[in-house]
Amino acid sequence: MWQYEKKLQFPINIKTPNPKLASFIISQYGGPDGELAASMRYLSQRFAMKDNVTKGLLTDIGTEELAHLEMVGTIVHQLTKNATTTQIENSPMAAYYIDHGRGVYPAAASGVPFNAMTLASKSDPITNLVEDMAAEQKARTVYENILRVSDDPDVNNVIKYLRQREIVHFQRFGEALDTIQRKMCEKKTIVPGVKF
Amino acid sequence: MNRNQLLKQIMEYDFVLYELQLYLDTHPNDMRALKMFKQVSDTVCGLRKEFEEKFGPIIARNNESSTTWQWLESPWPWEN
Fold first, then answer.
1. What ipTM, to 2 d.p.?
2. Mean pLDDT for back-to-back runs of 10 residues, chain A (196 residues)
3. B73 and chain A: CB distance < 8 Å anywhere?
4. pTM summary value
């Protein structure tokens, strides 16, 4: 089970309202490569895993993604809290504002609400781990897209931190995949239940 | 007490604690509930310490050993 800690993983203190930037960053909350999809993907895939390294890694990274979800929500909240209605109306956040106000809702930057079709969870550990490595790279790409369109250092310091975490997770997933594949080679395991 | 018995006891006390937590969220001035929360909190603290010394960490950062990473060794909650 989980226990909440009343702190962020990395401090966030944004001083300048920016609804346009919020409408982009919301994608890492509920978009196709966002933190909600990441946590649901890893925490669901755990049940399919056969070795303790991967079970532990998915538990720990899945948990960290929940902390990142809170961080992205915090960024969106701080970017919109003191934005005026006029500022919002004249920004790409206008349509979002009509549906959700200044609330934090899991949706992509394009406006599409969170969809579990953006993640996969299968009973095959290799399939899952390769998906996870791709997911970390996709999230890194999105954080880099955000850095290209944002010039607020209060925001960018946090985005750079989150981007770095994607790289670390990719590295750890790669190591887990390597461990599993080496074990399969040693045991000369073929895919269970499949005739070649 | 074996692992499962001690774990079940911790789960029971943890549930009481959680139930009190929710109650205190909406009744923060209930002295009887506050006193009970403190008592159960102390009890569960001791039980968790005993469990982790005998059977390994419940949360990863309580990995006591400086020579082995015990976090991965004990059974996972979705497996019996």
1. 0.94
2. 97 98 98 98 97 97 98 98 98 98 98 98 96 98 98 98 98 96 82 70
3. yes
4. 0.95
